[in-house]
Amino acid sequence: MTKRHHPIFSQTGNLGLGQAWMWIGVLVALGCVVAPVSAQNCTASNPQLAVTVLQTVLATCPSYDDFQAMGYKYGYDVILVQASVAGNLAIPVLRQFASLPKHNACTFSSFDAAARTALAKLGDENAYAAIKQEWAQHRAGQYPARIDFIGDDWALQTLIEFLIQHANDPRMIEEHGPADGPYDYRSGILKEIRGIARRHVVPDLPDADYSPSGIAQWKLWLGKYKGQHLSTRVFESVSDPYLQCLARRVEWGHPDAILDIATFGGPSAEAILKRFPAPRSGEVMGARELFPDILLNENGLRPETDSEIQGNLQAALLRFGDQRVAFQVATELNSFALFPGYFPFEAIRKLRFAGGKTAVGVLVDGLGSANRTSQNAQKDFDACLARVAQLKEPSNEQKESAQKECAGLLYWAERRTTLILSALAEMVKDPPLSPDAPPTAESSQKWKDWWAKNRDKAVFVTPPRASYDWH
User: Fold this and answer.
1) What is the band of 314 on the pLDDT scale with cuts at 50, 70, 90?
2) Terminal-residue alpha carbon distance, the chain
3) What angle do the packed helices 91-98 and 78-86 form, to 10 degrees?
4) What is the model's pTM?
5) Helix axes 305-319, 356-365, angle to 10 degrees
6) pLDDT surpasses 50 at 394
7) Which residue has the higher pLDDT, 309 or 12?
8) Residue 30's pLDDT is what?
9) Alpha-carbon distance 112 to 412, whole Å?
């Protein structure tokens, strides 16, 4: 898992936009920057309020002290965050940011570059042309702008073309990267290509690398599709202003807006969600503050935004009883290993958010021994006991110590069962067991028997209806 990236109040030189944003994530993790407080979501009055916030920030640019106070109030990612809410209404003030003189607080913090990126994403021809020119003049190594954030057909095709041209270029490997080790820019480009495809439906996009066979696949795809219009951003086809704003927020890198579409979108929500790329198994859900009892300690880190988009899509579509997604999440719950990613636990979070008959059925089916976590734990436990049995005349102390060690191997399977039992008890009315039921075979069987009798008459608790699109 990696930190989220945000703009930084410091010099950024010629770093790519994503790298320039890295340090503010550190500040947030350390508690040095408070969460932005205004115009962060898509309620009725907020598009114009977001413009007002940008104008307020612009007024602080001549004064470093005023600007720093603004940063603590609104967050140093204020340009892209507020523009994602305001949409085209932000274009006039963004143009003012983009044309600021070099020596002031806003340009020192690369707010002018962030404004140009936002303008390009909003279709401003001058900003778009400038970024295209930067890329046309670029050779290798650190690239001049995160065009995957722009994310349109030109950006996707340009990244693929750049990968093809530099697949064997030694300049693409930097000896001292952002993690104090070698960094391969080709891997970064692949990640950005795949990120675009997690936000937009892209036909026939290869799941290829930069090996000779992978590059051959990219060449075939580019030869077929270069210069064509491939995909439409989801929000462009949404008529309701509130839902359009939420869909645009997803496009601008705010995955939890998907959960708000599912929760508050009404009859049109499911159709909007299905315009995004169909999610794949093994993606992490966003809203990390939701059901924290399930999450393990993440040490202030959050998953990749594009993974959260797909994981949130799973959770959102589950709320509408999507059977294809239910099968995906059941696979994560029962067949995926715990490491890396804790996918069985992520599956429980998705199912708890979704609620309803489909989600409860997946959880009940996940109880018992017919899952990878339980089976692997039992194998390890049996092997451990066999080793204990081989000890020659062990002392009582050795026996006790060995038994504790063996029992510890069942921890993850028991934790998984504990979380499922707790979730089930909160998802139906009058459950057969309390949320703190012990993770025993008897508890699991009691739920299975209850579900067999009540699946068609159970009353389900309404899932939470809070907004999660605030960061």
Assistant:
1) very high
2) 18
3) 150
4) 0.85
5) 110
6) yes
7) 309
8) 28
9) 49
